[in-house]
Write a structure and sequence with these properties.
The chain is an alpha+beta fold. The protein has 16 helices and nine strands. The protein has a five-stranded mixed sheet with strand order 5-6-7-9-8. Strand 2 and strand 3 form a beta hairpin. The longest helix is centred in the first third of the chain and has 20 residues. It is elongated, with a radius of gyration of 24 Å.
């Protein structure tokens, strides 16, 4: 599945009131008390703290582990340990464009913490060859000072993380092993690294299988195979236990509608083996390959295209028709779902089956360009109602979604 824009989410899935939780702001972040002054703003420490930030940035640029860890307060033992782990993780990545810059200090009126001084610091890096743009994470640095100088005691703040919607990368939260081959950068943890070679080979094979069926793309992808599923749970619109994997966007920075990269996270509990695994990898990598091209498309087009491409890499059109009718024949009430209701209403697997068949029908009878052109037509468009969106489909294809469904089923019966 693909995590993308909440296309018509409130219109088609839930009333507006249900899109907000009690006790939350309109953006879904927790209500936090306003402070009258920034936290711990001891001006006597400020210059020394900013100098320490510069030292950390230079250590990152120089690749100097000792200099980086020297900036950490040795009394903050847990933090010192996680900083050493983080450095060793990132050292395995093709990481570049490091910077640490003072952030928007107005945020300090909404966070609370300990230490002698807290400052917002924006950390930026880019995975060379994989990220189109550098990625920036807003951090809250907590400093402590004594006669020996200033050191860093923490770089995270739970309230700031809630405000920014921080979703950690694997290298932020656990020890990782990084493997790179043939344009695939894969990240594993202690529990998944034993399968690294097999998974890496399968991702490369899946990428190569679908490449001829898609518009031109770089073919380069970052994949996560991590046993801690908390991050996947936050990326997905369905329960993580029901998700075998997800393609997701990495924003240039929180709150900025600009994507730095699309990546692929595997749920190691549900990857299966053989054909099931191959199909999953092809489907998710199709999402990665399309990137933001389908961001504004209805859910049936987003998921149907990825599923069609995954199957077309294995079966010829006659086989695909037979498979589709075996699953869809005799099931009344099927409909192409446009928004997040695709994942939550009816039997979800049937939504995927019908969407895959419709996209296969379009690509097979009108040519693959018909699918890409339809995606492009949706780009940047918003609709006030379901009827308006369906009318747009009719103008583009000459068929309403209901007529498109009927035509696709009739086509499949001719196998």
């Amino acid at each position: 599945m693909r995590a993308s824009r909440a296309w018509l989410a409130c219109l088609l899935l839930l009333p507006l009131a249900a899109c907000q939780a009690d006790g939350s702001g309109q953006d879904g972040s927790p209500d936090l008390p306003e402070r009258s002054a920034p936290a711990g703003m001891d001006q006597t420490l400020r210059d020394a703290a900013l100098a320490l930030v510069d030292e950390r940035e230079q250590a990152l640029v120089d690749g100097d582990r000792d200099a980086f860890l020297t900036t950490v307060d040795p009394q903050a033992e847990d933090f010192a340990e996680t900083q050493a782990r983080w450095w060793d993780n990132v050292a395995q990545l093709p990481a570049t464009d490091f910077s640490l810059e003072l952030g928007d200090e107005s945020v300090m009126t909404r966070v609370h913490g300990e230490g002698d001084l807290q400052l917002p610091v924006n950390f930026t890096m880019r995975l060379d060859g994989y990220d189109a743009r550098p990625v920036t994470q807003p951090l809250i640095y907590t400093f402590v000072g004594d006669d020996d100088g200033v050191r860093l005691a923490d770089d995270r703040n739970i309230q700031s993380d809630a405000l920014t919607g921080w979703v950690p990368a694997p290298w932020d939260v656990t020890a990782v092993t990084v493997e790179e081959s043939e344009g695939v950068l894969a990240v594993f943890d202690d529990e998944t690294r034993d399968d690294a070679d097999d998974l890496q080979a399968d991702i490369v094979a899946a990428r190569d299988d679908i490449e001829p069926l898609l518009p031109a793309w770089s073919g380069r992808v970052v994949a996560y195979d991590i046993s801690d599923l908390d991050a996947i749970d936050r990326m997905s619109v369905v329960e993580v236990d029901d998700t075998a994997g997800i393609a997701f966007p990495v924003l240039r920075r929180p709150g900025v509608d600009q994507v730095a990269a699309y990546r692929f996270a595997v749920n190691p509990a549900h990857t299966g083996s053989g054909f099931e695994r191959d199909l999953l990898f092809r489907h998710e990598l199709a999402h990665v390959a399309l990137g933001d091209r389908d961001d504004w498309s209805p859910a049936w087009l987003v998921e149907g295209t990825a599923e069609y491409v995954a199957r077309a890499a294995t079966y010829d059109v006659a086989q695909r028709k037979v498979e589709a009718m075996g699953r869809l024949e005799g099931r009344p009430g099927l409909q192409l779902r446009m928004g997040q209701d695709f994942y939550t209403r009816g039997e979800t697997w049937l939504n995927y089956e019908l969407a895959a068949l419709v996209c296969d029908y379009l690509a097979s009878t009108r040519g693959p360009e018909a699918v890409w052109s339809l995606m492009d037509a949706f780009d940047g468009r918003q609709f006030a109602s379901l009827a308006e969106a369906e009318a747009f489909v009719r103008r583009q294809l000459g068929l309403t979604p209901a007529q498109l469904r009927t035509a696709a089923l009739a086509w499949a019966r001719t196998a």
